[in-house]
Amino acid sequence: MTPDHGAAGRIVRVETFVVPPRWLFCRIETDQGVVGWGEPIVEGRAEAVRATVEVLAEYLVGQDPLRIEDHWQVLAKGGFYRGGPVLSSALAGLDQALWDIAGKAYGVPVHALLGGPVRDRVRMYAWVGGDEPSALAENIAARLDEGFTAVKMNATGRMPALATVADVAGVVDRVALAREVLGPHRDVAVDFHGRVGAADARRILPLIAPYQPMFVEEPVLPDRPHLLRDVVTASTVPVATGERLYSRWDFRPALEAGVAVVQPDLSHAGGISETRRIAALAEVWDAQLAPHCPLGPIALAASLQVAFATPNFLIQEHSIGIHYNEGADLLDYVADTSVFAFNDGYAARPIGPGLGVAIDEAAVRRASQAGHAWRNPVWRHDDGGFAEW
């Protein structure tokens, strides 16, 4: 691997594309014709992130794209006000694109630049619903037919501030059903999605412990890390969190509370650069990495590059066929879909340069003409008050 800084050149253009179903892509081009792709998005806030990417691009144009760490430091810390989902997501997409350029300039996959692969394949899990339990068994069976050995489900739909007996029983029954379909040799992760209060989480986790979920995700809202320790110690079920945390500083209180799995999203938590640091921090607390990724092809490609180079990686989420993807899907923007052809529930190690995925630029540009204005649903309780989605 011979570094060739001349092959990368200088950044001359940063473009953004709002594409269905709910994504934002960015494209960085150099004067030597090297192109890197990233996915900076806050779902439901694409317009705000796009504007932030454009502001950050003012700094990047004219710069050497291979100075990734220096650019990360400036973009993350150069403004007096730091952090938060919009800035961190804009930075994340640009960081992904810079790593893509670096890999292409060096002629190697990004994971080679991160120290090389520590595994030969990456275990994947697939989404099976759970908000509405009627089709849960069928959805799980369909994913098993596709070869997956792990699935994730929502624990519940809308939940009151304090659950009724029926509400709690509904969660337990769904998890029990999933275990029955999966049997003892496959895994289910249960996503609380911040919908369940801490008191109910402490009640529910011991009740689902006999069904041994791989982990329970976001059992309390991310702005309440002081409540996590009591939830973690309420049962033996491993607790996961992190899709709405954006830096290693955000993750430290969760790790100190004893979470077993961290779930940074590579399109939210500062990209490849910061996610690598979050994973290293998690290793100190014997926690595993399971990147959040209900997003598009670039976010998934970046996640896989980190997964192959991270010793304490556990499992990877993907969004192919997920219910959010109405009107377009992940593979619609990929020139060669074989990179995302999972076998027996595993992803093969990507060998192409950069992020290892060839984006169909013509498809992206066509889709961006329609764009989208996706917003997440707003839920309300029976009395009309706001409910967590």
UniProtKB/TrEMBL annotation:
InterPro entries: DgoD-like, Enolase-like_C_sf, Enolase-like_N, Enolase_C-like, Galactonate_deHydtase, Mandel_Rmase/mucon_lact_enz_CS, Mandelate_racemase_C, Mandelate_racemase_N_dom. GO terms for molecular function: galactonate dehydratase activity; metal ion binding. PROSITE patterns: MR_MLE_1 (PS00908), MR_MLE_2 (PS00909). It comes from the Bacteria. One of its GO terms (biological process) is amino acid catabolic process. Keywords: Lyase, Magnesium, Metal-binding. It holds the Pfam family MR_MLE_C. Residues 133-238 form the Mandelate racemase/muconate lactonizing enzyme C-terminal domain. SUPFAM superfamilies: Enolase C-terminal domain-like, Enolase N-terminal domain-like. NCBIfam families: PRK14017.1. This is Galactonate dehydratase. It comes from Asanoa hainanensis.
